[in-house]
Design brief:
This protein is mostly helical and 509 residues long. The chain has 21 helices and five strands. Among the domains are: 37 residues, no CATH class; 280 residues, no CATH class. The strands form two sheets. Strands 1-4-2 form a three-stranded parallel beta sheet. Helix 6 runs antiparallel to helix 7 and helix 7 packs antiparallel against helix 8. Keywords: Membrane, Transmembrane, Transmembrane helix.
Protein backbone atom coordinates (compact mmCIF):
# COMPACT_ATOMS: atom_id res chain seq x y z
CA UNK A 1 0.00 0.00 0.00
CA UNK A 2 2.82 2.42 0.86
CA UNK A 3 4.41 1.66 -2.49
CA UNK A 4 1.23 2.73 -4.38
CA UNK A 5 1.03 6.01 -2.44
CA UNK A 6 4.65 6.86 -3.35
CA UNK A 7 3.94 6.15 -7.06
CA UNK A 8 0.89 8.43 -6.96
CA UNK A 9 2.93 11.26 -5.43
CA UNK A 10 5.64 10.89 -8.10
CA UNK A 11 3.04 10.92 -10.89
CA UNK A 12 1.50 14.09 -9.42
CA UNK A 13 4.92 15.75 -9.40
CA UNK A 14 5.21 15.27 -13.17
CA UNK A 15 2.15 17.39 -13.78
CA UNK A 16 2.71 19.92 -11.01
CA UNK A 17 4.86 22.94 -11.76
CA UNK A 18 7.63 23.05 -9.18
CA UNK A 19 8.20 26.29 -7.27
CA UNK A 20 11.87 26.30 -6.37
CA UNK A 21 11.46 29.36 -4.15
CA UNK A 22 9.04 27.24 -2.14
CA UNK A 23 11.48 24.42 -1.60
CA UNK A 24 11.68 20.80 -2.80
CA UNK A 25 10.10 19.12 0.23
CA UNK A 26 7.24 21.65 0.50
CA UNK A 27 6.55 21.24 -3.22
CA UNK A 28 6.32 17.46 -2.94
CA UNK A 29 3.98 17.59 0.07
CA UNK A 30 2.00 20.55 -1.29
CA UNK A 31 2.51 22.44 1.98
CA UNK A 32 4.05 25.74 3.06
CA UNK A 33 6.69 26.08 5.74
CA UNK A 34 5.81 28.04 8.86
CA UNK A 35 8.97 29.93 9.87
CA UNK A 36 7.31 31.46 12.91
CA UNK A 37 7.44 28.14 14.72
CA UNK A 38 11.04 27.55 15.78
CA UNK A 39 12.36 24.74 17.89
CA UNK A 40 13.23 26.05 21.36
CA UNK A 41 16.18 23.68 21.64
CA UNK A 42 17.73 24.78 18.31
CA UNK A 43 21.44 25.73 18.51
CA UNK A 44 23.30 27.55 15.78
CA UNK A 45 26.31 25.94 14.20
CA UNK A 46 29.08 27.98 15.82
CA UNK A 47 31.62 27.00 13.16
CA UNK A 48 29.46 28.40 10.35
CA UNK A 49 28.63 31.54 12.33
CA UNK A 50 32.31 32.24 13.00
CA UNK A 51 33.38 31.78 9.37
CA UNK A 52 32.91 35.45 8.50
CA UNK A 53 35.01 36.50 11.50
CA UNK A 54 37.84 34.02 10.96
CA UNK A 55 38.44 34.81 7.31
CA UNK A 56 40.93 37.40 8.58
CA UNK A 57 42.96 34.62 10.25
CA UNK A 58 45.01 32.29 8.06
CA UNK A 59 47.71 29.66 8.43
CA UNK A 60 51.26 30.32 7.25
CA UNK A 61 53.37 27.55 5.77
CA UNK A 62 56.55 28.52 7.57
CA UNK A 63 56.84 26.94 11.04
CA UNK A 64 57.49 29.13 14.06
CA UNK A 65 61.22 29.52 14.70
CA UNK A 66 63.67 31.29 16.97
CA UNK A 67 63.83 35.03 17.47
CA UNK A 68 65.05 37.03 14.48
CA UNK A 69 66.64 39.74 16.60
CA UNK A 70 68.98 38.81 19.42
CA UNK A 71 67.85 40.55 22.59
CA UNK A 72 71.28 39.93 24.12
CA UNK A 73 73.06 41.78 21.32
CA UNK A 74 70.60 44.70 21.53
CA UNK A 75 71.12 44.85 25.29
CA UNK A 76 74.91 44.77 24.91
CA UNK A 77 74.77 47.56 22.34
CA UNK A 78 72.69 49.72 24.71
CA UNK A 79 75.17 49.03 27.52
CA UNK A 80 78.07 50.02 25.25
CA UNK A 81 76.29 53.25 24.25
CA UNK A 82 75.75 54.17 27.92
CA UNK A 83 79.42 53.54 28.72
CA UNK A 84 80.67 55.58 25.76
CA UNK A 85 78.11 58.39 26.06
CA UNK A 86 77.84 58.73 29.84
CA UNK A 87 80.35 56.79 31.94
CA UNK A 88 83.58 57.78 30.15
CA UNK A 89 82.58 61.48 29.71
CA UNK A 90 81.76 61.64 33.45
CA UNK A 91 85.22 60.30 34.30
CA UNK A 92 86.89 62.75 31.92
CA UNK A 93 84.91 65.66 33.33
CA UNK A 94 86.15 64.90 36.83
CA UNK A 95 89.74 64.14 35.86
CA UNK A 96 90.50 66.93 33.39
CA UNK A 97 89.23 70.37 32.41
CA UNK A 98 91.09 70.50 29.11
CA UNK A 99 88.81 71.67 26.31
CA UNK A 100 90.93 69.87 23.70
CA UNK A 101 90.50 66.53 25.43
CA UNK A 102 86.73 66.95 25.66
CA UNK A 103 86.55 68.06 22.02
CA UNK A 104 88.65 65.09 20.91
CA UNK A 105 86.42 62.71 22.87
CA UNK A 106 83.36 64.17 21.13
CA UNK A 107 84.76 62.94 17.81
CA UNK A 108 85.89 59.65 19.34
CA UNK A 109 82.37 59.02 20.65
CA UNK A 110 80.91 59.48 17.17
CA UNK A 111 83.52 57.16 15.65
CA UNK A 112 83.09 54.51 18.35
CA UNK A 113 79.28 54.46 18.24
CA UNK A 114 79.04 54.50 14.44
CA UNK A 115 81.50 51.63 14.13
CA UNK A 116 79.73 49.75 16.95
CA UNK A 117 76.43 49.90 15.05
CA UNK A 118 77.97 48.21 12.02
CA UNK A 119 79.87 45.83 14.27
CA UNK A 120 76.69 44.60 15.98
CA UNK A 121 74.88 44.30 12.64
CA UNK A 122 77.71 42.02 11.53
CA UNK A 123 77.50 39.98 14.73
CA UNK A 124 73.73 39.53 14.38
CA UNK A 125 73.93 38.50 10.71
CA UNK A 126 77.20 36.56 11.08
CA UNK A 127 78.76 38.91 8.52
CA UNK A 128 81.29 40.49 10.88
CA UNK A 129 84.10 41.02 8.35
CA UNK A 130 81.82 42.77 5.85
CA UNK A 131 80.24 44.92 8.56
CA UNK A 132 83.66 46.04 9.81
CA UNK A 133 84.62 47.03 6.27
CA UNK A 134 81.40 49.07 5.95
CA UNK A 135 82.03 50.77 9.29
CA UNK A 136 85.60 51.54 8.27
CA UNK A 137 84.47 53.03 4.95
CA UNK A 138 81.98 55.25 6.80
CA UNK A 139 84.57 56.63 9.22
CA UNK A 140 87.41 57.03 6.70
CA UNK A 141 85.20 58.90 4.25
CA UNK A 142 83.76 61.09 7.02
CA UNK A 143 87.28 62.00 8.21
CA UNK A 144 88.44 62.78 4.67
CA UNK A 145 85.46 65.06 4.05
CA UNK A 146 85.99 66.95 7.32
CA UNK A 147 89.43 68.05 6.15
CA UNK A 148 88.74 68.37 2.43
CA UNK A 149 85.24 69.93 2.52
CA UNK A 150 84.62 71.26 6.06
CA UNK A 151 81.81 73.58 4.98
CA UNK A 152 80.01 71.12 2.72
CA UNK A 153 77.55 69.70 5.25
CA UNK A 154 75.43 68.11 2.56
CA UNK A 155 78.24 65.97 1.15
CA UNK A 156 79.66 65.22 4.59
CA UNK A 157 76.38 63.77 5.82
CA UNK A 158 75.17 61.83 2.78
CA UNK A 159 78.39 60.41 1.31
CA UNK A 160 79.55 58.28 4.31
CA UNK A 161 76.08 56.77 4.77
CA UNK A 162 75.68 56.06 1.06
CA UNK A 163 79.11 54.50 0.59
CA UNK A 164 79.11 52.37 3.76
CA UNK A 165 75.60 51.02 3.10
CA UNK A 166 76.38 50.31 -0.56
CA UNK A 167 79.64 48.62 0.39
CA UNK A 168 77.95 46.29 2.88
CA UNK A 169 75.10 45.53 0.45
CA UNK A 170 77.41 44.59 -2.41
CA UNK A 171 79.45 42.34 -0.14
CA UNK A 172 76.58 40.37 1.42
CA UNK A 173 73.96 40.19 -1.35
CA UNK A 174 74.32 38.20 -4.55
CA UNK A 175 71.08 39.67 -5.90
CA UNK A 176 71.66 43.25 -7.08
CA UNK A 177 68.02 44.21 -6.53
CA UNK A 178 68.26 43.21 -2.88
CA UNK A 179 71.53 45.13 -2.58
CA UNK A 180 69.87 48.29 -3.93
CA UNK A 181 66.87 47.84 -1.64
CA UNK A 182 69.07 47.39 1.43
CA UNK A 183 71.16 50.45 0.54
CA UNK A 184 68.13 52.69 0.08
CA UNK A 185 66.54 51.49 3.31
CA UNK A 186 69.79 52.06 5.23
CA UNK A 187 70.10 55.61 3.87
CA UNK A 188 66.46 56.26 4.78
CA UNK A 189 66.94 55.05 8.36
CA UNK A 190 70.22 56.86 9.05
CA UNK A 191 69.07 60.18 7.55
CA UNK A 192 65.69 60.04 9.30
CA UNK A 193 67.33 59.59 12.69
CA UNK A 194 69.77 62.42 12.00
CA UNK A 195 67.89 65.05 14.09
CA UNK A 196 68.55 62.96 17.22
CA UNK A 197 72.27 63.66 16.95
CA UNK A 198 72.35 67.47 17.11
CA UNK A 199 69.17 68.76 18.69
CA UNK A 200 69.19 70.60 22.02
CA UNK A 201 65.72 69.29 22.90
CA UNK A 202 64.55 72.73 24.00
CA UNK A 203 60.89 71.87 23.39
CA UNK A 204 60.98 68.95 25.81
CA UNK A 205 62.75 71.02 28.46
CA UNK A 206 60.24 73.85 27.98
CA UNK A 207 57.33 71.46 28.47
CA UNK A 208 58.65 70.07 31.73
CA UNK A 209 60.72 72.97 33.07
CA UNK A 210 58.08 74.17 35.54
CA UNK A 211 57.75 70.64 36.93
CA UNK A 212 61.46 70.32 37.60
CA UNK A 213 61.69 73.78 39.13
CA UNK A 214 58.87 72.97 41.52
CA UNK A 215 60.72 69.90 42.80
CA UNK A 216 64.41 70.78 42.69
CA UNK A 217 66.84 71.84 40.06
CA UNK A 218 67.56 68.67 38.09
CA UNK A 219 67.36 70.18 34.62
CA UNK A 220 70.96 69.30 33.85
CA UNK A 221 70.32 65.69 34.81
CA UNK A 222 67.18 65.73 32.69
CA UNK A 223 69.07 67.03 29.64
CA UNK A 224 71.79 64.45 30.14
CA UNK A 225 69.26 61.62 30.42
CA UNK A 226 67.44 62.73 27.28
CA UNK A 227 70.78 62.98 25.46
CA UNK A 228 71.68 59.38 26.39
CA UNK A 229 68.24 58.13 25.34
CA UNK A 230 68.68 59.94 22.02
CA UNK A 231 72.04 58.21 21.53
CA UNK A 232 70.46 54.83 22.29
CA UNK A 233 67.74 55.43 19.70
CA UNK A 234 70.19 56.82 17.15
CA UNK A 235 72.37 53.70 17.11
CA UNK A 236 70.11 50.86 18.30
CA UNK A 237 67.21 51.45 15.91
CA UNK A 238 69.43 51.03 12.76
CA UNK A 239 70.88 47.84 14.25
CA UNK A 240 67.41 46.32 14.76
CA UNK A 241 65.79 47.49 11.54
CA UNK A 242 68.72 46.74 9.23
CA UNK A 243 69.09 43.26 10.71
CA UNK A 244 65.38 42.64 10.07
CA UNK A 245 65.68 44.11 6.57
CA UNK A 246 68.51 41.75 5.66
CA UNK A 247 66.56 38.75 7.01
CA UNK A 248 63.42 39.66 5.05
CA UNK A 249 65.34 40.23 1.81
CA UNK A 250 67.28 36.97 2.10
CA UNK A 251 64.06 35.01 2.72
CA UNK A 252 62.66 36.58 -0.48
CA UNK A 253 59.16 36.64 0.92
CA UNK A 254 56.85 37.38 -2.01
CA UNK A 255 53.74 37.73 0.18
CA UNK A 256 51.80 40.90 -0.59
CA UNK A 257 52.79 43.66 1.80
CA UNK A 258 50.08 45.00 4.09
CA UNK A 259 50.23 47.56 6.89
CA UNK A 260 47.61 45.61 8.82
CA UNK A 261 49.06 42.12 8.45
CA UNK A 262 50.19 40.51 11.70
CA UNK A 263 52.33 37.38 11.80
CA UNK A 264 52.68 35.15 14.86
CA UNK A 265 55.63 33.25 13.37
CA UNK A 266 58.26 35.21 15.28
CA UNK A 267 56.62 36.56 18.43
CA UNK A 268 59.09 37.92 20.96
CA UNK A 269 59.81 36.48 24.35
CA UNK A 270 58.90 38.56 27.41
CA UNK A 271 62.51 39.66 27.96
CA UNK A 272 62.99 40.74 24.37
CA UNK A 273 59.63 42.50 24.38
CA UNK A 274 60.63 44.49 27.46
CA UNK A 275 63.73 45.68 25.62
CA UNK A 276 61.82 46.49 22.43
CA UNK A 277 59.14 48.44 24.31
CA UNK A 278 61.87 50.58 25.87
CA UNK A 279 63.74 51.13 22.59
CA UNK A 280 60.85 51.82 20.24
CA UNK A 281 58.54 53.74 22.55
CA UNK A 282 61.43 55.97 23.67
CA UNK A 283 62.44 56.53 20.05
CA UNK A 284 58.88 57.46 19.05
CA UNK A 285 58.60 59.98 21.90
CA UNK A 286 61.98 61.58 21.26
CA UNK A 287 61.63 61.76 17.49
CA UNK A 288 58.13 63.25 17.86
CA UNK A 289 59.39 66.20 19.92
CA UNK A 290 62.68 66.57 18.07
CA UNK A 291 60.94 66.67 14.70
CA UNK A 292 58.90 69.69 15.78
CA UNK A 293 62.02 71.47 17.00
CA UNK A 294 63.79 70.64 13.75
CA UNK A 295 60.90 72.17 11.79
CA UNK A 296 61.02 75.33 13.93
CA UNK A 297 64.78 75.62 13.35
CA UNK A 298 64.22 75.15 9.61
CA UNK A 299 61.64 77.94 9.60
CA UNK A 300 64.17 80.20 11.32
CA UNK A 301 66.70 79.35 8.62
CA UNK A 302 64.16 80.15 5.92
CA UNK A 303 63.45 83.41 7.70
CA UNK A 304 67.09 84.43 7.41
CA UNK A 305 68.46 83.38 10.79
CA UNK A 306 71.98 82.01 10.61
CA UNK A 307 73.63 80.32 13.56
CA UNK A 308 76.23 78.63 11.37
CA UNK A 309 79.35 80.48 10.27
CA UNK A 310 78.88 82.00 6.87
CA UNK A 311 75.82 82.13 4.66
CA UNK A 312 73.68 79.02 4.39
CA UNK A 313 73.09 77.82 0.86
CA UNK A 314 69.63 77.15 -0.50
CA UNK A 315 70.73 73.59 -1.24
CA UNK A 316 71.51 72.99 2.42
CA UNK A 317 68.14 74.40 3.53
CA UNK A 318 66.33 72.20 0.99
CA UNK A 319 68.26 69.21 2.33
CA UNK A 320 67.12 70.02 5.89
CA UNK A 321 63.52 70.27 4.67
CA UNK A 322 63.94 66.92 2.90
CA UNK A 323 65.31 65.37 6.10
CA UNK A 324 62.33 66.67 8.07
CA UNK A 325 59.98 64.99 5.60
CA UNK A 326 61.98 61.75 5.86
CA UNK A 327 61.88 61.94 9.66
CA UNK A 328 58.11 62.38 9.63
CA UNK A 329 57.62 59.38 7.32
CA UNK A 330 60.04 57.35 9.44
CA UNK A 331 58.17 58.36 12.61
CA UNK A 332 54.94 57.00 11.12
CA UNK A 333 56.81 53.81 10.16
CA UNK A 334 58.13 53.40 13.71
CA UNK A 335 54.59 53.75 15.04
CA UNK A 336 53.32 51.15 12.58
CA UNK A 337 56.18 48.73 13.32
CA UNK A 338 55.87 49.06 17.10
CA UNK A 339 52.09 48.67 16.93
CA UNK A 340 52.34 45.45 14.93
CA UNK A 341 54.91 43.74 17.15
CA UNK A 342 52.90 44.75 20.23
CA UNK A 343 49.65 43.52 18.70
CA UNK A 344 51.30 40.19 17.82
CA UNK A 345 52.61 39.92 21.38
CA UNK A 346 49.13 40.44 22.86
CA UNK A 347 47.49 37.93 20.52
CA UNK A 348 50.19 35.33 21.13
CA UNK A 349 49.62 35.71 24.87
CA UNK A 350 45.85 35.34 24.49
CA UNK A 351 45.09 38.91 25.64
CA UNK A 352 42.13 40.91 24.39
CA UNK A 353 42.85 44.07 22.38
CA UNK A 354 40.93 46.40 24.63
CA UNK A 355 41.59 48.39 27.82
CA UNK A 356 44.96 46.87 28.67
CA UNK A 357 46.29 47.37 25.14
CA UNK A 358 44.95 50.94 25.03
CA UNK A 359 46.73 51.98 28.25
CA UNK A 360 49.92 50.19 27.19
CA UNK A 361 50.26 52.80 24.44
CA UNK A 362 49.98 55.84 26.73
CA UNK A 363 53.09 57.56 28.12
CA UNK A 364 54.07 57.23 31.80
CA UNK A 365 51.09 54.95 32.61
CA UNK A 366 52.45 52.28 30.30
CA UNK A 367 55.66 51.91 32.35
CA UNK A 368 53.83 50.36 35.30
CA UNK A 369 51.43 48.47 33.04
CA UNK A 370 54.20 46.85 31.02
CA UNK A 371 55.99 45.74 34.20
CA UNK A 372 52.77 43.98 35.24
CA UNK A 373 52.06 42.62 31.75
CA UNK A 374 55.48 41.12 31.23
CA UNK A 375 55.35 39.41 34.61
CA UNK A 376 51.91 37.79 34.10
CA UNK A 377 51.67 37.21 30.34
CA UNK A 378 52.07 33.55 29.36
CA UNK A 379 52.49 32.36 25.79
CA UNK A 380 49.73 30.19 24.38
CA UNK A 381 50.85 26.65 23.46
CA UNK A 382 48.45 26.57 20.51
CA UNK A 383 46.56 29.17 18.46
CA UNK A 384 42.88 28.86 17.60
CA UNK A 385 41.38 30.84 14.72
CA UNK A 386 38.12 31.54 16.48
CA UNK A 387 39.90 32.69 19.63
CA UNK A 388 42.22 35.05 17.72
CA UNK A 389 39.23 36.53 15.89
CA UNK A 390 37.42 37.09 19.20
CA UNK A 391 40.48 38.83 20.71
CA UNK A 392 40.53 41.27 17.80
CA UNK A 393 36.83 41.99 18.28
CA UNK A 394 37.24 43.06 21.91
CA UNK A 395 36.36 46.72 21.38
CA UNK A 396 34.92 48.35 24.49
CA UNK A 397 32.06 50.74 23.81
CA UNK A 398 32.67 52.25 27.25
CA UNK A 399 36.16 53.23 26.13
CA UNK A 400 34.79 54.75 22.93
CA UNK A 401 32.25 56.81 24.88
CA UNK A 402 34.92 58.01 27.34
CA UNK A 403 37.21 59.15 24.51
CA UNK A 404 34.36 60.99 22.80
CA UNK A 405 33.40 62.63 26.11
CA UNK A 406 37.00 63.75 26.83
CA UNK A 407 37.31 65.15 23.29
CA UNK A 408 34.03 67.00 23.70
CA UNK A 409 35.19 68.38 27.04
CA UNK A 410 38.45 69.58 25.49
CA UNK A 411 36.42 71.34 22.82
CA UNK A 412 34.22 73.19 25.32
CA UNK A 413 36.99 74.41 27.64
CA UNK A 414 38.43 76.98 25.17
CA UNK A 415 34.92 78.21 24.44
CA UNK A 416 34.57 79.39 28.05
CA UNK A 417 37.02 82.19 27.28
CA UNK A 418 35.10 85.26 26.15
CA UNK A 419 38.01 86.30 23.93
CA UNK A 420 37.85 83.16 21.84
CA UNK A 421 37.51 83.73 18.10
CA UNK A 422 35.49 81.88 15.48
CA UNK A 423 38.56 80.12 14.11
CA UNK A 424 39.09 78.41 17.47
CA UNK A 425 35.44 77.34 17.59
CA UNK A 426 35.71 75.97 14.05
CA UNK A 427 38.94 74.09 14.89
CA UNK A 428 37.33 72.49 17.98
CA UNK A 429 34.33 71.32 15.97
CA UNK A 430 36.58 69.81 13.29
CA UNK A 431 38.70 68.12 15.98
CA UNK A 432 35.63 66.51 17.56
CA UNK A 433 34.27 65.38 14.19
CA UNK A 434 37.60 63.79 13.24
CA UNK A 435 37.81 61.86 16.51
CA UNK A 436 34.28 60.47 16.08
CA UNK A 437 35.04 59.55 12.46
CA UNK A 438 38.31 57.86 13.45
CA UNK A 439 36.60 55.77 16.13
CA UNK A 440 33.77 54.59 13.89
CA UNK A 441 35.41 54.10 10.49
CA UNK A 442 38.44 51.92 9.78
CA UNK A 443 39.56 54.35 7.06
CA UNK A 444 39.29 57.27 9.48
CA UNK A 445 42.94 56.83 10.46
CA UNK A 446 44.17 57.64 6.95
CA UNK A 447 41.80 60.60 6.61
CA UNK A 448 42.94 62.08 9.93
CA UNK A 449 46.64 61.50 9.13
CA UNK A 450 46.20 63.21 5.77
CA UNK A 451 44.35 66.22 7.23
CA UNK A 452 46.83 66.62 10.11
CA UNK A 453 49.71 66.57 7.64
CA UNK A 454 48.04 69.17 5.41
CA UNK A 455 47.39 71.38 8.44
CA UNK A 456 51.04 71.29 9.49
CA UNK A 457 52.16 72.06 5.93
CA UNK A 458 49.68 74.95 5.78
CA UNK A 459 50.99 76.46 9.01
CA UNK A 460 54.57 76.08 7.80
CA UNK A 461 53.75 77.80 4.49
CA UNK A 462 52.00 80.64 6.32
CA UNK A 463 55.04 81.09 8.56
CA UNK A 464 57.38 81.15 5.56
CA UNK A 465 55.25 83.78 3.84
CA UNK A 466 55.41 86.18 6.76
CA UNK A 467 52.25 85.39 8.71
CA UNK A 468 52.78 85.47 12.45
CA UNK A 469 51.47 82.06 13.52
CA UNK A 470 50.96 81.68 17.30
CA UNK A 471 53.34 79.10 18.78
CA UNK A 472 50.44 77.33 20.49
CA UNK A 473 48.83 76.72 17.09
CA UNK A 474 50.82 73.50 16.99
CA UNK A 475 51.08 71.62 20.26
CA UNK A 476 54.49 70.41 21.37
CA UNK A 477 53.07 66.89 21.34
CA UNK A 478 51.45 67.16 17.91
CA UNK A 479 53.57 64.49 16.22
CA UNK A 480 53.22 62.05 19.08
CA UNK A 481 49.45 62.61 19.00
CA UNK A 482 49.48 61.66 15.33
CA UNK A 483 51.51 58.49 15.95
CA UNK A 484 49.28 57.56 18.91
CA UNK A 485 46.38 57.27 16.48
CA UNK A 486 48.36 54.52 14.76
CA UNK A 487 49.28 52.85 18.05
CA UNK A 488 45.73 52.57 19.46
CA UNK A 489 44.08 51.81 16.11
CA UNK A 490 43.61 48.04 16.77
CA UNK A 491 41.49 48.77 19.87
CA UNK A 492 38.73 50.22 17.70
CA UNK A 493 39.27 48.46 14.37
CA UNK A 494 40.55 44.95 15.06
CA UNK A 495 38.58 43.65 12.09
CA UNK A 496 40.90 45.62 9.79
CA UNK A 497 43.78 43.23 10.57
CA UNK A 498 44.69 39.85 9.14
CA UNK A 499 46.65 37.43 11.31
CA UNK A 500 48.95 34.65 10.14
CA UNK A 501 49.22 31.62 12.40
CA UNK A 502 52.00 29.01 12.25
CA UNK A 503 50.54 25.65 11.22
CA UNK A 504 52.69 23.72 13.64
CA UNK A 505 51.12 25.40 16.68
CA UNK A 506 47.57 25.98 15.46
CA UNK A 507 44.37 24.17 16.26
CA UNK A 508 42.03 23.31 13.37
CA UNK A 509 38.48 24.68 13.35
Amino acid sequence: MERRDQVKICQQCRHRKMNFNRGLLCGLTDEFADFDNRCENFEEDKASVMTHTTNQVFFEDEPASAQIISGKLAGLLILLIIVISFVIPSILEQSTESFKIHDAYHYFRFYALTFSTWLFIGLALKKLNFAMIAGGVHLVLFTALIYSSPSNYLLREIAPILCSSACFSLLVFTDKKNAIKFTLIAIFIFLSLGPLSYTQLSIISREYRHVFKSIFDIRDMFHQTISILAQISLYTIPFILLTLTYTKLVKSNTTKFSLNKISLLHVMSNKNMALFVFIFYTSILLLSFILLESIINTLQLLGGASYINGNISNGFILFIVFKNILSFVFLLFLGWFYRNITLAFYLANNKAISWNYFFSMLPIINIILWIVNLSIFERSATYNRNNIAELLKSKSMTLVIIIIFITLLKCFIPLLDSRVDMWTVFAQIIDFALVVFYLNNKYGLYVVLGLETLLILLLVLLEINGFDIPRNAISAAVFFSIVRLILIYPVFHGNAFTVGLPKATSEPL
